[in-house]
From TrEMBL:
One of its GO terms (molecular function) is N-terminal protein N-methyltransferase activity. This is Alpha N-terminal protein methyltransferase 1. Gene3D superfamilies: Vaccinia Virus protein VP39. Its EC number is 2.1.1.244. S-adenosyl-L-methionine binds at residues 66, 71, 116-117, 132. It holds the Pfam family Methyltransf_PK. Belongs to the methyltransferase superfamily. NTM1 family. SUPFAM superfamilies: S-adenosyl-L-methionine-dependent methyltransferases. One of its GO terms (biological process) is methylation. It comes from Lingula anatina. GO terms for cellular component: cytoplasm. Keywords: Methyltransferase, S-adenosyl-L-methionine, Transferase.
Length: 221
């Protein structure tokens, strides 16, 4: 995508998310009913890399990027990892997370209120970094730099997971409501390659209602 007026792109997203209710429905733009299918698909995809004989990485610590109120932290990451960190733009969502996670909140070590464009994971800290439904809020160049910083943030054998909407055409769709973009798969992959990432596995999420974007899960190193 051509770099938009970067400052306005981020300011508008910040404004948008400040107005969104701190609920699962808010996180999913009114699609709370797809959350179970989403989490089940993610669990199946992620488990093969962290459990069993063919596990590729460990399950000590994960990072949830653009974590919102912790929908993914609670249902995907906490059940599979010893500890989880959350990074999220809107501090109100992180405050809500403490309540939303309930008895599991003590498994979260760090609540980090930052935009991913300004965030640098601590080197070697994470076995898994999970990015879902947030990378359309970064410009292309910021996304490449963020991917590079994620690589540094991974522990030995650590893996990066990306789960994002993709367009079915070769055009980038712009959403002026939440100030984000939806990229075609090939552009997303090109940005991954620019960051020096390698795709280990790629899978389309099944079972979402018709009329939504395709959603692809990538496992990367
Ligand atoms: C569509 S919601 C998804 C939340 C969560 N990933 C989930 O699937 O439940 C997008 C989230 O990204 C956050 N966000 C938006 N721009 C961001 C940025 N630049 N850096 C970090 N988080 C951002 C929003 O505040 C919101 O919590």
């Amino acid at each position: 995508m051509a770099e938009p007026d970067t400052e306005k792109f981020y300011q508008d997203a910040d404004k948008y998310w400040k107005e969104v209710p701190a609920t699962v429905d808010g996180m999913l733009g009114g699609f709370a009913h797809i959350s179970n299918t989403d989490i089940n698909g993610s669990t199946k995809f992620l488990r093969q890399f962290i459990r069993g004989e063919n596990a590729k990485t460990k399950s000590h610590r994960a990072l949830d990027c653009g974590a919102g109120i912790g929908r993914i932290t609670k249902r995907l990451l906490i059940p599979l990892f010893d500890t989880v960190d959350m990074v999220e733009l809107n501090p109100d969502f992180l405050n809500k997370a403490r309540e939303f996670l309930g008895e599991h909140a003590d498994k979260v070590e760090q609540y980090i209120a930052k935009g991913l464009q300004d965030f640098t994971p601590e080197a070697g800290r994470y076995d898994v970094i999970w990015c879902q439904w947030v990378l359309g809020h970064l410009t292309d160049s910021h996304l490449v730099e963020f991917f590079k910083r994620c690589k540094v943030g991974l522990a030995p054998d650590g893996m990066l997971f990306v789960k994002e909407n993709v367009t079915s055409s070769d055009e980038v769709d712009k959403d002026d409501t939440d100030s984000s973009v939806t990229r075609p798969r090939d552009i997303l992959v090109k940005l991954m390659m620019e960051a020096g990432l390698k795709i280990i596995k790629e899978e389309k999420q099944k079972g979402f209602p018709k009329g939504l974007y395709d959603v692809i899960m990538f496992a990367l190193t």
